[in-house]
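Friendly challenge for the regulars: who can give me the structure tokens for this chain first? No prize, just bragging rights.
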Amino acid sequence: MDEEQDQPTLAGPTPISRRNPPRAGERRSMVRRTASVGRRWARDTFSREQLVSNLKSIAWVIPLTILIWVYAERAQQDDGSTTVTIEVKSADPTRVARLASSRSISTSFKGPKARVDQAAKQFDPRSGLVQVFVEGDRPPGVYEIDVRQQIQKDPRFYDNGITVTACEPPVVTVEVDLLVEEDLEVRPHPELAQRLNRFSFEPKKVKVSAPAKLLAQAKAKGPLFARVDLSGYPEVNTPGTHGPLRAPVNVPFLPDVRVWPENVNATLDVKPADAQFRIDSLPVNKVVVGDVEETHRIVYQTKFIPNVVVYGPADKIKQLEAGTVTPKPEARFRVTPLDAGAGKINRELEYVLPEGIRLKEDGTTLKTIEIEVVKKDGV
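First reply, four minutes later:
Bragging rights claimed.
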């Protein structure tokens, strides 16, 4: 019976009501122990060494976090498109490459989302051209060049991690030619030359560098020379000797070539100012070649041209007004046997004026007249 009372029961912990409450001394001891533990924790947590260690951790954790964010942003790829304007250049200084097709290329590309829109804005035509280089070992001729790889090398794409995926058109046509040099005589504008007694230029010749093909085409149009541009100098309208005047030169029919020196010194002796005169009625006469008039009539309605304005030196104009100058002013047209039976045709007029007198041409100056060479009756 006693043994049964000594065995522990399985009914659970002793009810609180049965426990002995802690004494006052024990409570104070527990408070002191808790406070001591808190102080040790605070001392260990907020010690100088611990704070320094935490700051060091933050010093590399924050930049690392930013780098992760930046990398994540860059890793987001996006597509874009823009139109670029290209220019071609030869890698060989003795050759020149000329674009023979469109300069505008539509490009598609992909890259970091944040830079795709920025790249598209950078290729506004006003922001600069994209250079396409042609290998220097190509002989003169016409070639097709793949432009995608060339455009990809542009820093605005390459340095921003952007990949050019397609171009339209995918190739461009370029013409490679030899670059040649030639010495050209310096001359004034023909209209200015007529108002000069004398002129001289220093140097008398300039050197031009141009593609051989373009140079040959220009020569086919007439003698090649360098023209001095004195349009900005009021001295050319004032009689007397002027100079030296430093003025630029260019080459007619070759506007985009290199000329050196770019300027020459011009010395001019300008004639007295021209006078102007209006011829009330200028006769129109025919010049017949062969015996076509024996069998045909030459029919034309314009026998006189009214209000023809001419100009020249004052003394010459006075002689013209007085009718004492020769030859007498007239307009002429030519007739040849080939015109017979050809129907109505337009024939160019030639104005015949005394030496030193020039025709003042404007939009109303008659250039041609209509004629017809008709077979005579009974012939």
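DSSP finds ten helices and 21 strands in the chain. The two ends are 175 Å apart (CA to CA). Your move, everyone else.
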